[in-house]
Each structure stands twice: as structure tokens, then as C-alpha cells.
Write a structure and sequence with these properties.
eight-stranded mixed beta sheet; 31% helix; 273 residues; single chain; alpha+beta; eight-stranded antiparallel beta sheet; 38% strand; 4 helices
Length: 273
């Protein structure tokens, strides 16, 4: 057999193999889509049977991220202290995992679990100061609540890898047009993947939510969206992030832990019965 014919046969074999693989992938994808469609129909019917509307388009097909174990980043804390207090703030270790910084604008304390607070005359330009801090240290754009005198707060939710951490926030206090305090949670930008069970899908989270609603008689009549986020957990040796589904209803948001199935409202776990 000459080389030219051998080459053509090899090419034909590769084409056939690729066609087979593409066909198998298409068949598997079709089966997955059909299974998801049936799951959606069953969930919508389940919710309707309990007098609650569930938008079929609200059931996300996203895969939850893995859990993360966080390690303290003192260099990040130092940069945050310099942002809040001015360049090169004086540093002292207070013991018990508490680090103290003092600078031209005031003082700040950072704790090993990620919490911090700063007081003083931090800025006379509240909007730019708060927005710049949030962009620099991974928060969502801040929400603003000011009264007619310009007093109030800017607040924002932490982000980790672009994913919101629903129970970790930062708040800036504004008085007389000046930022006089800041506090909340400062998260490291990277961590170590934490082992965990197969996380719940959005459909699984909705089933857990509906079970809680039946047992605790939670007041909600419609689910309009499901979104992925993280929950900060500080009870262990090191703080960690667990993947969570945020379930948006007509009366408020609920959060379902992707590993345990526990349902909470703003961080407060709902008890059955």
C-alpha cells in the first residue's frame, strides 16, 4: 500500500472517530437537557401544589464553586490600613490575633477572622473614597443611604473570585460630609480549596427551601431567581467560604448551603417546626 493511500485511510479513520465522539457528546447533552427539563417541570408542579409560583427560568444550571479555606493576609491588611489612615501607618501587635494601625487620619484594628474597624477623619470625599476602597479590596459597588444632611452610610458586599459573600460586608459611616468610621470584613484574595461533598444544584437547593417553607411556614409566594454566592464561616480553626444558593422570593432572600442543605435568611438559620 503506498504512502498516499495510507495517509487517506488514517485521515478517514480520524474523521470517523471524531464524528462518533461528537455524536456521543450530542447524545449525552441531549439526555442531560431532557433530564433537566423534567426536573424543572416537577419542581414547578411541586411549588404550585403548595400555592407558590416558581419561574422555570429562575432555576439556574450553573455548577457551584468549591469551598475555600482562607489564610490571613497581613500584607493586604497593611495596604487597607494605609488606604484608610494615610501612608505608612504605625503598626503594633495587640495579641490575640489583633493588629493595630495608627496614621494621620485615625486608627484601625484588624482581627484574624477578617473583621476590622477604623475610626477618625478618614476622608472628606465620601463617595470617591468608598467606591475606590471597594474597587481596590474586592467589594461590590457600595449602596448609599444618606439623609438630607448628608449623614448616613455606604455599604457593600464582599466578593471572592467575583462571587458575592452574602454575610461579609463593609460599612462606612458618613457624618457632616466626612467619613468618620469604616468596618466590616476584609477577605484575602486567595485561599486553599477545601474538600467537600458534591454540592447541591439549584434544583436541590429549591427542594431544600421548599421543605423548610413547609415546616416553618415561611411567608413567600413566588421564587423569581436563584444565584450562586458564598457564605463566610468563622467557627473553625481558620475562616472558610462555603458555596451557597441565594433564592430570591417576593418577600426576601433565602440562602441554602450547598453542602448541608441548611436554609438561612440573612445568615439566620431557619428552624423547622
Amino acid at each position: 500500500m503506498d504512502r498516499f493511500r495510507l495517509k487517506n485511510i488514517i485521515i478517514l479513520i480520524l474523521v470517523l472517530v471524531n464524528a462518533f465522539l461528537l455524536g456521543s457528546m450530542a447524545q449525552r447533552r441531549g439526555a442531560e437537557q431532557e433530564a433537566f427539563r423534567r426536573t424543572v417541570e416537577q419542581l414547578v408542579a411541586l411549588f404550585a401544589g403548595d400555592g407558590m409560583a416558581l419561574d422555570a427560568h429562575a432555576i439556574s444550571r450553573e455548577t457551584p464553586p468549591g469551598g475555600v479555606t482562607l489564610a490571613r493576609d497581613t500584607a493586604l491588611e497593611e495596604r487597607a490600613a494605609a488606604f484608610l489612615l494615610g501612608k505608612a501607618p504605625a503598626f503594633s501587635d495587640q495579641g490575640g490575633g489583633i493588629l493595630h494601625y495608627a496614621g494621620p487620619a485615625g486608627e484601625a484594628f484588624f482581627r484574624s477572622g477578617g473583621g476590622f474597624e477604623a475610626t477618625g477623619l478618614l476622608s472628606e470625599d465620601p463617595e470617591d473614597f468608598c467606591r475606590d476602597f471597594c474597587r481596590t479590596f474586592s467589594y461590590e459597588a457600595p449602596a448609599v443611604r444618606l439623609d438630607e444632611n448628608g449623614d448616613g452610610v455606604f455599604s457593600a458586599v464582599c466578593l471572592y473570585g467575583g462571587v458575592p459573600v452574602f454575610n461579609a460586608t463593609v460599612t462606612f459611616t458618613v457624618e457632616g460630609g466626612r467619613v468618620t468610621a469604616a468596618g466590616g470584613t476584609l477577605l484575602p484574595k486567595s485561599g486553599t480549596p477545601a474538600p467537600g461533598e458534591e454540592p447541591l444544584s439549584a434544583a436541590g437547593a429549591l427542594a431544600a427551601f421548599q421543605q423548610m417553607r413547609r415546616e416553618s411556614v415561611a411567608v413567600a409566594s413566588a421564587v423569581t431567581d436563584t444565584r450562586l454566592c458564598y457564605e463566610l464561616q468563622s467557627g473553625g480553626a481558620a475562616p472558610s467560604l462555603a458555596p451557597v444558593w441565594r433564592i430570591v422570593t417576593d418577600t426576601g432572600d433565602y440562602y441554602v448551603n450547598c453542602y448541608t442543605g441548611a436554609v438561612s435568611v440573612g445568615g439566620r438559620t431557619e428552624a423547622a417546626g
